[in-house]
Specification:
This protein has 783 residues and is α+β, with helices and mostly antiparallel strands. The chain is built from 21 helices and 23 strands. Strands 5-4-3-6-2-1-7-8 form an eight-stranded mixed beta sheet. The protein has an eight-stranded mixed beta sheet with strand order 14-13-15-12-9-10-11-16, with helices on both faces. The chain has a five-stranded mixed beta sheet with strand order 18-20-21-23-22, with helices on one face. β3 and β4 form a beta hairpin. The longest helix has 38 residues.
Amino acid sequence: MATQNNLHFDVSTGLKRVLGRELITDDEVAIFELVKNSFDAGADCVQLYFGNDSIVIADNGTGMSYADLTDKWLFVAYSSKRGNRSPDDFRNLAADRRNYAGSKGIGRFSSDRLGEEVILQSRPKGTAKKVHRLDVDWELFEKDEKERFENVPVHYFEQDGFQLPSELHKFESTLTHGTAVTIQRLRRPWPRQRILDLKASLAKLINPFGEQTDGFSIDITAPFEVAEDQRLGASFAKSGEVPLSRDIVNGQIGNFIFTTLQDKTTFIRVTIEGDELYTTLTDRGEVIYKIAEPNPYQHLAEADFKCEIYYLNLSAKTTFARRVGLPSVQFGSVFLFRNNFRVFPIGEDGDDWFGFNRRKQQGYARFLGSREVIGRVDVSGSDEDFQEASSRNQGLIETPAVEQLHRAVMEHCLKRLEKYVVPVSWVDKPDANTDDLSRLMTDPGRARVTAAVANLVDNEKVRLIDYSKNLVDLINERSGDFETSLVSLRAIAEKTADVKMLERLDIAERRFDDLKKSEADARRVADKALAVAEAANLRATVAEAEIETERRRTHFLETFVNVDSATILNLHHQVTIYAVDIAQQIENFLLETAGQKTISRDTVLKTLEQMAFLNRKVMSVTKFAAKATFKLDSEKIETDLAAFIYDYIEQIARTTGSARLQISVENNHPGLKLRFNPIDASIIVDNLVSNARKAKASKINFVLTREDKSGLTIHVSDNGRGLALGTNRSQIFEMGYTTTQGSGLGLYHVRQALGEMGGSIELEEDTKKGLAFVIKIAAKGKK
C-alpha cells in the first residue's frame, strides 16, 4: 500500500514580478492603486511628490501598526478589506465608508511597476508615537527565481517621525498619523507632460463632475516644474487671463466643473432607491420631467446606483473643449465609479464596455454613441457583486449585479435620454448650436417637448412627479402642431390629475373646433367669390392682380370669435407697425415733393399704390383680430425662401420705410425651396426694420447666405443705439420684455415666426455699434 504524504506549494521570488510589473501594466494604474489605498485608509488628503529620481505618495489616513505591517501588508494577496472585519480593525476607523476602492491585496506590488525600491513609513491613529518603516528592494527578488519568496529580507526600522522631502515639511508637520510610500530608483523618468497627463487622469479618477468625493483631495508637488508653472502664470497674467489647472503641474488636482455644462445641454439623472427607480431629465437648466417607477433591478436595490449622462450637442462640445482643454471624445465618455473610485478603463476613448457604439452602428441617425454623451455611473458594493479584474484595466468581472448594471444604464439612462434628444433636438438642426432654450420656446418646440413627455408617461407604472410648466403648455392656435399638442397635453393632465389644465384644454378644444368651422365657412365664401371673379374674365394684368387680392382676402371673412389677450396683443402690434409705415410713406412723399410746384402723375400713383397696399395689410390684420392667429397658416406657398425675402425687402420694405432709414439687402444664396407662410416672412423683416427705426438707426442691412451645407443664414445689422445698458440679453426674445417705450413684442414675434419656419435667431456678439442678429433656417421647412 502506497504511503500518503501531505505536500505544499513553494512560492518563488518570481511571484513578485507576476503580481507587480506583469499584472499592473500601466504606470498611471500603479499610482491609482496607491492612491486608492490612501482613500481606503480614510485619508482626506494625499500628497504626490515627484523628485529627480523618486516619487512619494503620502496621506493622513489611519496608518498601520507593527501588527498591521506583519500580518497584513507583508501577507501576500491578503486584504483586510475583504469580508467581515472585527469592530476594532483599523479599517473601520475610515470615515464611515461602507465599501473600499480596492480589495485584492496586491496593490502594494504596484510600487514595483514604478521603481526598484520602496520605503514604507506609517504611524497608526491613536497613541503611537513611533513611525514604523519598511525598506523593500524589489531587485533582490530578481536575483534567483528559485529562491523562496519568504527568504528575501525586508528591513524594518522604527523612527521618531516621518522623513519626507523638504517641500512636504508643511504637510509632514501636521501628520500625526498616516502612511508615506517613497519609490526610489525609478524605472522611467517623469517629465512635465507625463505628470500633466497623470494629473488629468487622477481628476477623472476621483470625480470629474464637480462633486467632492468624501472630502478627498490630491495635491501634486514637483519642485523641478515650479519655474515653468510660474512662467506660465506670468504669461497668462499679462493677457489678463487665469491659467487653466490642466497647464499647471503643482497644486491641488481640481475636479472638472460640470455645473456650466448642465446649463448648456441636456442631461438625465437616474437613481435607484430600494424598490423605486427615479428619473429626472433636464434640458439647459430646465427640469423637463421627473418620474418614478418600480425598480426592475433587484441586484442594484442596495447598491446606491446613480447615473448621470450628458448629451453633447455642438454648443456643449465647444464649451467642454474650452473649459477642459481637449475635445470631449479625448476626455472619455461614460465613466464607472465603484465605491467612489473609478473603474479603469471604462469610459476611456475607444472603450465600449457599455455597448453604446455597437448599438450606434445599427442606427446611426436614431441612436446616441459614446462620442455624443459623457457622464458617470456610480455603484457601491462588495466583490461578490462588483469585482474588478485582477489586471486592473479590464473593468468588472461579469456577475448578475454587473449584468443588471449594463441593462440599467442602457435601458433607463441612455435610451431614456435618446427618447427626448432624437425627437426634440435632432429634428431641429439649429438646436445643435444653441446653448439655451430659445429653440424650444417656440410653438413647434413646445409641441415636441410635450409629445416627448406624453409618450414617456403613457405607462401605468410610471408616476409623473414634476414637469416643465414653461415648455409643457398650451401653444398658439396658429401653430400647425396645435391639434396634436392638445392630445399630448391631455395625456399629461390626466396622469397628474391636473383639473385646471383639463378645464383649459376643454375650452381650447371648443374654441379650436369653432375656428375650424369658421374657416370652412370662409372657404365656401371665398370659392363663391372666386367663381364670380373668374366669370368676369378680366384680361388686364392689374385687374387680375386685384382679383387675386380679393380672393386671398375673402379667405379670412369669418364670424367673430373670442381670442385670448396674447393674440390681441400680437395682432394689435402688427396693426401699429403697418399704421406707422403708412405715416412714414406720407412723410417720404412730402419730403420728396417739398418745394416742388408740380408733381408727376407717376410719383403720385406710386405713393398712393404703396399706401393702398399697406392699408390692405392693416385691413387684413384687423379682420384677423376677430379670428385667431392660427389662420396665419391658411395661405402657405412653396417657393424659394431666400428669393422671397429678398424680393419682399426690395419691393415692399424699402419702399415703405422711412427716409431716415436706409434698408439694403444682399442675396448670395443659391436658392432654398420651402413651404412657408408669407406673412411669417413679412413679420420677421417688418419687426427688425421697426426695431432699427426705434433705435435711431440710419442703416439696416440684410445679407442672405448659405454658410452650412444646407439651409439659409441671414445676417441682420443696423447702426442704431444698440441694447440699452442693463439689458438682459437672454430675455430680449421673450414676450413683453422691453427696455424702451415699445410693447416688447417685436423680437418675440420674430422668434415665433421663425419657429414656424424651422428657424432660429440669436444676437451676434462683439458688435461695435448698433445691433446685429444671426437668423438660421433649416433646409427642411415645416410642413
